[in-house]
């Protein structure tokens, strides 16, 4: 059944649903489905941990190889045939052949990328639920609240619990887009698409020097508004903002062109990906003027952060998988509150220890082909959680 509580503003209501408390067989069936999901998650964690170690070591070796081979260029304004096919390092200002335009708003800028961001004023639904048991039934009380906000994506109001009074348009009259310059250079060298993709440090473009492009468009701050009253927008109104990345020419309002540092393979007057002997690809771009050592240090730091993030994700996946697979023991005793809580604590501790040991063991196997000594040390470390857990079990009393 449903019970509504509406104060009259049509911006908030409460719905209460109830269902019979599931029986033992039903709970056991749900647990069995969770065990299958846990098994899949458990197996995927091994793949994630193992492949991550190989990727991390391969990337580290590729970076070391690149550091030993890279050649800093003396000049970016001339192309030397002696460096053909070699890994080179250069730094300089970005340049593009022509500016990027948005004729709909009378805007142009000399940059690598120009992004138009369109937002629509829409209803947004928020949901807050609580469950409780009453008269042998499980009841769920859900509070729905509605607010109007600027959103870059269309919010489908058909999925709202109550669409009446909170209906959004099905599409935007103006679309977002990103324009990219077809030719980007640093000095005499043309950047590959992969290097251009790395230029993504977007900054909002000030519209203070522009006029209103149309009679039905009003400029307010750094936005163009498709609204009769931008200070009191209505659902369906639009506002448009612009962002740019990689300023490639001197601008009286934005300053001088952005500088970048690039490490890539020279092919004629183009900078393209460099394939290392380790099987990795090097095409690096950072904002600013950096030395060779600074670039490779940043790449090593990025590789280390990614490696530890994936290790944590792999351990968590293994912990969740083991918890789901052993959940059946909790279900078997869940009608005894004290026993249920003790079993729950024991299962969590078991999952923690086993996940930690198996994660370390998997990492050591991943290192076995690259650094056997470190693999052996990590393998020995993997037994520590089990030894610690076993040492906390009191010995049997002598008969």
UniProtKB/TrEMBL annotation:
Bilayer topology: Multi-pass membrane protein
Keyword terms: Endoplasmic reticulum, Membrane, Nucleus, Transmembrane, Transmembrane helix
Gene Ontology, cellular component aspect: endoplasmic reticulum membrane; nuclear inner membrane
Transmembrane segments: 32-50, 308-329, 349-369, 374-393
UniProt subcellular location: Endomembrane system; Endoplasmic reticulum membrane; Nucleus envelope
Pfam families: TMEM43
A biological process from GO: nuclear membrane organization
InterPro entries per record: TMEM43_fam (IPR012430)
Family per similarity comment: Belongs to the TMEM43 family.
PANTHER family for this protein: PTHR13416, TRANSMEMBRANE PROTEIN 43
Name of the protein: TMM43 protein
Organism whose genome encodes this protein: Eurystomus gularis
